[in-house]
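Data availability excerpt. The first of two example chains:
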Amino acid sequence: MNSIELFAGGGGLALGLANCGFHHKAVVELNKDACRTIRANSVFDFGKSLYEGSVVNFDYLSISDEIDLISGGPPCQPFSLGGKAKGNEDSRDMFPQAVRAIREKRPKAFVFENVKGIMRKSFVDYFEYIVLQLQYPSFEKHDGESWEQHRARLERYHTQCEHTELEYKVIYRLVNAADYGVPQKRERVFFIGFRSDIDANWTFPDPTHSEDALLWDKWISGEYWERHNLQMPVSKEKVVNEIKKIRKKYGIFKPESLPWVTVRDALSDLPDPKSKKAIKYNQHLFKDGAKIYPGHTGSYIDEPSKALKAGAHGVPGGENMIRFEDGNVRYFTVRESARIQTFPDSFNFEGSWGEIMRQLGNAVPARLAEQVGQSVFRALVEQSTLKAG
């Protein structure tokens, strides 16, 4: 199936969707280092489809093929809890460009991703406006019209009995990447839409992993420590309370889901980046300077990582550090960060260390993208098969 990837960044979403069977006819990205990353990886096999430039200037009509899917992560800084949070007043708000892409190419479906902060109370009006635009992409904003005026027109149109414009059936969902096997507690909002003539019969994929299952493996069965050839630590008061809750909830039966994947799980076969063995591993180099400061204490090794972040003014150390059992911390290496974001070890990143960490901090975990993408791909295939029959 043919697709267009917008705001590609380092390529986590694009990679996950490509693994599902979507063939990118165009990949649009502005950042020069992210573009170098895309070109450096043969796993993409769509470097030739790369457009290095702003989506504002991209001509969608230059693509003659029918497009099944448009995807991307519009810049999240306008809505990020860690950013300036200007929302629709931020020039980096690219949702209008995502809507333009849908309007001009009329794909069968779309997948967009953004930060949890877009759902906060102060943005609720604009969030509803985004959803209405995605539902009715042909209902364009007039020159000189404010977004509030445009939203009012969309609301009136939405509540009419008959609709004549291009429409999409839109579902949005706040998900935690850890619930889908990503070794990272990363909460993100997905917007999924299907064209109104597509009988997709789709629902968001169910979580596969849970914190309850991890707690069971740690403190009831002890399987987590056995897997890593470690002694079970002495239970602290907080852990004792967690054990009581889990036993009350599940009795003698283990949770059916898989356990959350921890930092230790994800990195256990990588050597210490300070050791001589580390040189054999791709982009697994130690970087000094990590330290704890208020609100930034690193990611505990026996939990999923905190969400990796890019930072408005560089890399914030607390979110991109590993914290060991003894309380010591160090920066994640590029390779470790890539594993936290579920990129394959063969994947290369281009740019300075700070720029690479920015690409990784902005990326959609490839595993999460693949699971969402598979569900959309199957829905489109099934719908196409039924239509043909």
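And the second chain:
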Amino acid sequence: MAQLTDDCFAFSGPLLPLVDMERLIAERIAPVGDTERVPLRSARGRVTAADILAPVDLPPFDNSAVDGYAVRHTDLARDGDTKLVVSGRLQAGARATVALAPGKAIRIFTGAAMPAGADTVFMQEDVTVDGDNVVVPKGLALGANRRIAGEDVPAGRLVLPAGTVLEAQHIALLAALGLTEIVVRRRLKVAIFSTGDEVVEPGSERGGAAIYDANRYLLSALLERLGAVVTDLGILADEPAELARALAKAAVWHDLVITSGGVSTGEADHVRGAVERIGSLTFWRVAIKPGRPVAMGVIRAAPRKAYEANSGCAFVGLPGNPVAVFVTFVRVVKPLLLQLGGARPQSLLPLPVRAAFAYKKKKDRREYVRVVLRLGADGEVEAVKHPQDGAGILTSLTETDGLLEFTENVTTVSPGDRVGFLSYAALMG
């Protein structure tokens, strides 16, 4: 379980700027300490627990980058073609046991080890074969088409620092270095539940004033995409004592508890009070739209064994509207998950595109607008705003390509302005 303290999110202001929230998470949240060794084939999405150094050179020996002829550069004429005797043949996987003599060339194939004495390779399409000889043109640079041992990675070099989230390219690199297992942080355990007397399970009987719960399905998919082990606790009624009991129970066996709904200021919004009964909710409004009523805090968990100290489980309370759940997850929950999981922070770099609409917003608030990308008449990429702004409009996520990020100092956007675009793939990680 993550070791948290009640003041880990300490913030005294009414609205927490997004940048301050990210700083607090980075400074005050300790990652889970448990690690495990997993097969490389099962390591995608896991987080490296320690720096990984290259055990061998990559490539492990000098080799040819092309199909062609290996030569000694000192044998080449400077002012014309050079005729060389072909003295052998080397394929990939064969050992180069014979040194290349002066005035000779060796037929060589891509990946084959360079013979001793050879330092340059001519591509086969650039030469002329004349019986047992090969005629090579002038002008090829020393070392052309030769891959040097360790030119990609020399033995002993840091290849992946601790905190790397392993993707296919990382796994390929580790396999090329001969590794078959890797030490990673354990997967985070996250409990989720929805609140609200109006929310019912999809597939169940729905009364006239009820809605089907989409938020738990959204959260589960987002969490699993980030490698978390998810426990779905279902839908809880708007009853303070029941909420407090469910939160306290979930805190014992999980690193993070996420709820949706019930964190605003309405009379039926009881999550805030429930958390304060069994822990601390140190801020509950972030300067972000959609999603201002998002809360973070700590739930105190009783020790599972007599010799254990009391520990804390991180808590995040998200809004009830599904678009607000999505936005606050990718911009608030995801940084917390990365920190808890021991992963290095991931910078979001908005891509510049052209706005095809006008927009106004309040100062000192980060806003995210759902847009579709298209090519303008001049070939420039431009963003078109979805016609519906509501935080409950799920189709505004399925019918768009990503979000425009308007920073706190922006108040107006005009058609033609350069704006920052974040794709859904980049946001979800």
